[in-house]
Amino acid sequence: MHDYLNDTSIPQESRDNMDFAKIENAVKDILEAIGEDTSREGLQDTPVRVARMYGEIFMGLHRDTKDDIKTFTEEGNDEMILIGDIPFYSMCEHHLLPFHGKAHVVYVPRDGKILGLSKVARVVDTLSRKPQVQERLTSEIADCIEKAVDARSVCVVIEAEHLCMTMRGIRKPGSMTVTSAMRGGCRTDARTRNEALALINRQRISG
């Protein structure tokens, strides 16, 4: 059995909470169920590799986004802030196939309370590292940003490609799914919402 508890390539949250032996056995069972020979050279270490990978890509199940949050106060700062083109990778909970793309986050601070720019990217990363659906991921990011800084307005737009649509099913490579979540002024005020979406669209075009 691989020494998962001392494997520092696996996030500590996963080492503390995941049953890696059960993952190993489950992967071996699946390989045997599809007709593979788990004793052949190419597959002998696959259950361990998958268990270690799951410890990394599903880390968000056991990490609190509060650990990603660091705020600052910039007096008089009440203008829109855009953090765009944040790359992310997640796993669709319906087929356990990846979906990946970019997240764009716009928010308006309250009383000058802002997030460190890298912290927004960390929030996106943490929330994407678990079995997810894109719609929920979009809403969770918006809720987290709104709560972290008591933001006046939040707009989150995610565009992603889903491998459950490109390598199976309808098999349409390159098709993108776009979702959005609005909070505060971006939900209630058309002018604020349009300004936020215009910022995101400019970022998407320039990017």
Helices and strands in order:
Blueprint: H1 12-17, H2 20-33, H3 46-57, E1 71-73, E2 81-92, E3 98-108, E4 113-115, H4 117-128, E5 131-132, H5 134-149, E6 153-162, H6 163-166, E7 177-184, H7 185-188, H8 190-206
Explain what this protein looks like in three dimensions.
The chain starts with 11 loop residues before the first helix and ends with a helix. It contains eight helices and seven strands. It has 207 residues and is an alpha+beta fold. Helices cover 41% and strands 24% of the residues. It has a five-stranded mixed β-sheet, with helices on both faces. Strands 1-4 form a two-stranded antiparallel ribbon.
Mean pLDDT: 94
Strand content: 15-25%
Kindly name the structural category.
alpha+beta
Q: Which sequence of strands runs across the widest sheet?
A: 5-2-3-6-7
Low-confidence stretches: none
Count all strands and give the number: 7
Shape: globular
Number of helices: 8
Indicate the radius of gyration in whole angstroms. Answer: 20 Å
The largest sheet is:
5 strands, mixed
The first-to-last residue Cα distance is 46 Å
Give me the strand/helix succession.
HHHEEEEHEHEHEHH
Helicity, in percent? 40-55%
Features:
207 residues, two-stranded antiparallel sheet, alpha+beta, 8 helices
Summarize the structure in short.
The chain is an alpha+beta fold and 207 residues long.
